[in-house]
Amino acid sequence: MAFVWISPLCATSGTAITIDIIGVPAIGADPRKTWTSTGADRSSLFLGDALHEEIPSARILLYDHLKPEERQLEVKELSDPGHKATAKAFASVEEEIAQYGTEEWANRLLEAVRGERSSQKAEKTPILFVCHSTGGIIVKRAITKRVMEGVVDIGAECLGVAFFATPHRGSSVLSEPEYVQAVQKSLGLKWEMSEHLRQEFSLQNRDLEILDYRFGPAALGMKIWSLVETHDTQLEVLSTSDVGGESLTRVDLSLVDVRSAVLSTTDVPVEEEDVIRVSATHVGIPRFANDDKVRRRYLKDLASFVQHFSAQEREAHHQLASSIMNDIHIDVHQFYEFSQPGEQDKAPLKVWSESPTLRTFLEEGPAQCLGRRMRTQVEEPDKSVRPKSSMEIRRSTEPVAPTIVVAPPTELPEAIPPRDDGTSLSAPPPEKLANIHTRRPSLTPRYTTEPIASNGHLAPQAAPQPLKDDEYRDIDGVRRPQKPPTFQLPSMNRDRFRWIHVPYTHAGWVPLVLMTVSKERDNLNLHKKLLVDKIWMSQHNRSRHASPHARFVRPSCQGLFPKELSQSHSNMQRSHSSATSEVQLVLYLPYLHWDTFKHLNMRAEVIQKRRMQDHARPVDRAIASGNSMESKLIWQYLTSNRPIHCRRTLDQYGYPSLRDTSVRDGDQILYKRTRPPRPEKELYESPLEHITGILQANRFPAGQHASIGTNDDASKVLMVDQLWLWVVDQQTVVTFAAPKEKDDIDTPLELGDLRSNIYRDVNGDYARQCDDCFDFAALVVFHAVKALLDITDDDSLQVFRIFEEYISVLTEQQTKSFKEFRDNHRNTNSRNLDVHRLPKYVDNKKDLDALLELRDIEDELGSIGKLFKDQHRSITDMLKHYHEINAKYEQGLNGTELLKEIKETIDGYQEQLDAMLKSAQTAHKAFIDLLDMKQKQANVVEAHLTREQTEVAADQSRSVMIFTIFTIIFLPLSFFASVFGINAREWSGTDSNLSLRTIFVYMGTISLGFIIVALLAAFNRFTRRIMRYLWRIIAYPFSGCFGYGLSCILGCIVDFYIYRNARQKAHASRRLSTAAVLETDIV
């Protein structure tokens, strides 16, 4: 293997190299001829000058799968003396090459790439692979190779991959023997494809499917181009006919089908894949033969991608993806029988747990993870610390278990590999336990107990019977040393089932986790049946507004039964049959949970930031360096093809079609009832808020106000989370559920946490009986339904009690309002109505506040009721499947009883909710009646005020009329008196006085001017502004004390005059009834 050509243009032009573009041909094909048009020189090379014109800073390398000496091998002519030696060498190398599979070819590629980049000291230079045909499979294997310590991972430096007609899911032409020679001739292979290699490219190949699942997470953040051939390739094959004889026949076939050339599938979605159809054959597609338009478009797209690339952004994005894969832990719990000698028939179940990272789980599988921990405990038996499971956390108040010395068993497998029959750690179905194990296996000297029958719940403990002291004494009466008790590790013949829990509801991880289990069981159909469209993708809800809260899986429960059972029960409608002889179960269930208002706002802020950009790059530094794994997952997977399902509030669950529910979320009853009280100096907006504040203050101990402050760390909101559950087979249960983020305050994290509740139940001193996977699945549903509503440790999380208290407060407020309304109108009629007490008669602000609160309560109770209906429907369907499982397989017997109890629990919740809803509706109706009476009283007050206003207006009219009459009478008298009192020339006889004509001219002109200016100032806004500006200009020189004061006084007079005119004009145009309503403060 070697690079046969490296572009020298960067070195000659002096341009700094920013990216390495590596061309990988088909296995055995010539690296130059693959990318060069027929009959053209090197200038026509696709990965040559044409690419350098678009990306001048790229270094282009052409890779050859064969070593130089292998490529140069040729068989000399028969007449040549060296023919025999060359033929022998050629055949020897061909035989050696024939043993290679895609794994060996990938190792060769990795060795060549690392060697070349190391020699150029370019280990950190980004890489972009351009591969053709089978070379694409080699690139996928190289990228998914696990990195050794101290070696740079090329997958971390890979920006993208261009697949030219790559058979991701195999090819019949490449795998069938009749096309071997034709494929060799068409692709220009050095040797024919070996049988080993052809088997790896066969259709429905298990290794290719597993490679797709591994490449999916590795390709996160990469740009993928899938170029598909659209023309058939002409092949010459040797054919026979019924007549007899052999002949060469030309057939036109597509070497790689379109469905195989596209990387993304329903099971393994790829984030950024562009599918490009090229009008070319399989051989001509890497040269873009006869399709120059697509070629130019692809080059521009590639150049644009490289130019907008940022090494820092790529590094930050890769660190974020690595942090997610390495920091998220998957819980793997092995349930096995724990028995002491002589107690095989009474063996209780014990849990052996391990928490590998997501990357480790996907690479090794659950059995390898459990086996590694078991080997670790056996290899270190002298440790003084008892090995703890991943989830076993005791509080400081709980007793600490004594030290356990783990004794190595006589026969312990190196790992826990899958069995040949497709099962792992499995044993023949054990006999059903007579009772629930009421205690963990004792770690002190044993006591013998008698089994007590149970109905599937807690069983009473039998009285302990200590062993006789004589049993530990020899014949001389000397006390013998007792044998220390030992802890029994899991073994293959005592395995019952496994529980695999993934802590986040990310749809992209579902096929990866289920495929890991199927691969370990050596039956890939296990997860394929569970992920068919009708069971998985068609159950996903999406809204047109594309808000994350509208993304969820619809509640349902579906059973997949074996074909023979499906045929015998034809009356049961089932879309699919099970992939094995066992029953498979799928359940999607919403359940009630809680969160703090602080985390709700943080989640909304992260979602808002992430939705502002189309892709995860660039990564927000605060999120990447933060401790919130939920924020990292939202940033990484929010807009992916298989996105993460974020936690939803109660209103987001009840109204998924709403684009934004932030206002409704901030108005939740639980939030308003658990938020810290406001400071005493703050004024309350309404009497109802004052009452609520007093009640909240009583809920917090004295001195706590200072520690809480005004933040929302202690405030809580109702959430609706999702539970995804799959019973893959009789040995494996897989669950997905979103955890609650950790708090900085002293609130126990495990309150309402589904995972912790389940583990405490199955691993506690008093555990429910789970004989098989179906019993455990029912137990998971049991805890999901009761996750929040059965909490008694925290008063702020007793949801029903909080609703009942608040409804009682509002009902009391309603009674008080009725009494106040009655008292205000006891001795009041329309004649003695006190105007000063009018606001009390018709004030309805606090009643409207209470009415809105009741509306919120009814709305939230309705959403909770919808949740109960969804749960009841899903559990009813689940119970129907359990009845069939009980009858046919005698499994899930305890689970059936548990499901019946769950249904009764939900019915009890529903009755309690209906009672609260009825009380809220009764108070709601009462407030509406009260508001109606107050409105009627307001109408009475309005009529009374209208009558009074009418009387006042009549009196004013009479006064104006009298004044007008007197004015009309005395105006002529005063005018003539003034005229005859003028010292005019005509009256005085003095020539120096003005004449009457001159006096009248002055009087008329000046009066007319003042009248016009006054009218303009009164009725024209523009004139008023001009007068104000002129006054400021005139008053500016007099800015001294006297002048400034005088100007202020005159300005105030002018402003008051203007304001009074405006008020009179508005008052005159306003209806009297509206004024009356405003005076009485009706809201």
TrEMBL record:
Signal peptide positions on this chain: 1-16
Key words of the record: Membrane, Signal, Transmembrane, Transmembrane helix
Transmembrane intervals: 960-982, 994-1019, 1034-1059
A Pfam family it matches: CorA
Gene Ontology terms, MF aspect: cobalt ion transmembrane transporter activity; magnesium ion transmembrane transporter activity; nickel cation transmembrane transporter activity
Cell membrane keyword on record: no
Region of interest (Disordered), residue spans: 375-435
Ranges annotated as biased composition (Basic and acidic residues): 376-397
GO cellular component, one term: membrane
Primary localisation category: membrane
Subcellular locations according to the entry: Membrane
Membrane topology: Multi-pass membrane protein
Lyase is among the record's keywords: no
Origin superkingdom: Eukaryota
Positions with biased composition (Low complexity): 398-409
InterPro entries recorded: AB_hydrolase_fold, CorA_MIT, CorA_TM1_TM2, MgTranspt_CorA/ZnTranspt_ZntB
The name this protein goes by in its record: DUF676 domain-containing protein
Annotated source species: Lasallia pustulata
